[in-house]
Every structure is written in C-alpha cells, then in structure tokens.
Amino acid sequence: MSNKIDPAMARVPKNEDFLAEIAHQLRKALEDRDNLARQRGKRYTRVDAARDLKVSRASLQFYLAGAHTPSGDVLRRAIEIWGLELHYRGRKLTMIDLEPAFKPQSKREARLPIQLSLWDSIRGLQNDSLSIRVEKKGPQSITLQVEIGFKAG
Length: 153
Prior knowledge:
The protein has 153 residues and is α+β, with helices and mostly antiparallel strands.
C-alpha cells in the first residue's frame, strides 16, 4: 500500500472570508441576471443558474449559502457567463488563477484543487524565512538547498 496522498482527495480547510465573497458575488450575479430577464418579461431562476453553471440545484444552494466552495471549473463558468469578479486577500482572481495545476491527459483524470492557503503562506513570508545554500557545484549544474520557514498560524 502506498503512503502517497492523492491530491484530488486532499482536504483544504474552509476559508470563511472567501466562501462569503463567493456566495455574495453569486447572489449578486443571480439578482442582476433576473433583473435583466424581468425587463424582457421573463425570469432567471436558480434552476436556470444551476443549468448554466452545470451543477445541481442543491450544489448551487450550498454555494449561495457559503457552505461549500465551488470548483475552479464552476467559478470559471460563472466568470465567463455572468462576468463574476472575485477578490481574495486584496487580489482579483482571474481565469489563470483558476486553471488546474496540471493539464489532464483525459477527462477522467482528477484536477488539483486551487491552493489559496499556499498563496496566504507565501504572502506572509518574512525576509528571514528563506535560506538558500549551495550543496554541490558541477561543471554544468548546481544543486541548491532551499529552506522556507512558514510560521505556524
């Protein structure tokens, strides 16, 4: 049995601020779409929204309530379809931020989740958090040891 952790199964702790931002922006986008539809004598319902985002109505409800974080695919569709703008820690997220960490060879391969907690850790680094040491010099290469000290939070 392998001790390797499947990245698709890795759990990332919830970020309540980011969940609230997503939920707020999704609710606002739904309201804006419904207002546009009403001007044409129609309605834009949650059923329509779930269909457009290619998720179940239950999943959409969890996203709107801030209970679950949508996948990068769902967020990309919301950005493309509704012009959703997401901000995280003072930084506007773009389509590039929501791209998978690797390109799967087939649709069956799992995609890595967006690692926003790593972004927070990197932004929190201090000058004394990084050390680099030359381990070995060769005629065509150099081996470095890089140590990054993350503070427990």
